[in-house]
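From the shared-data thread, chain only:
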Amino acid sequence: MSGTIRLDRLLANLGYGSRSEVQHLVRIRAVTLGGVPVEDAGMRIALAADLPSRLSVDEKPLDPLPGLALMLHKPLGVTCSHKEVGRLVYDLLPPRWRRRDPALSTVGRLDKETSGLLLLTDDGALLHRIISPKHHVAKHYTATLARPLRGDEAALFASGTLMLEGETKPLAPAVMEVLSPTSARVIVTEGRYHQVRRMFAAAGNHVDALHRERIGGLLLPADLGAGEYRQLKPADVAAIFA
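Structure, as tokens:
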């Protein structure tokens, strides 16, 4: 990230309030740069990577700058939406982050009853790079099934001929690894609606539980509990495409 921006615009874009509300924060000396109160809300400030460590609001470090990317351990019962009724994944983040501009969005979706690794970003180019079919970013899921596997599912999923109900284009080949008689790991490169659940339905089974453990080369950390999140480092982003 480079360039400069007016301080009041930056803080407004990060959700700290309207431009006038940010100007009020400056007037009451609640905004400091390098420990010194900022005098001019209209000052231009360089968008340097270390800015959050130097700029404080109400004695707290500045929120992450635009270009934010997060990994979140999505728990069951929350929805990947900005508007639906009930608990939303955005409710797991600081309230101010819902007012950011550009907005944070989920990178694809996990349905309400699916848990696991979910990415969020305000970087539209990164979002589209991850979900674009031409990049073939694999998603790894573990599925717990209602009935024992028949034995032919791996070949069916890998065939490239499996057609989901209501669709006219067959699925791209997918990998399935048997974990137990009633559980399997499935690796897909597409992101069709309820894809893994519908794949097993097409094979005559039902998914009781579904968990996404990996996107590309990025694994859900064992120490990231359900409902917790952390900011992605450049190496984490690179791992997605490794």
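The radius of gyration is 22 Å.
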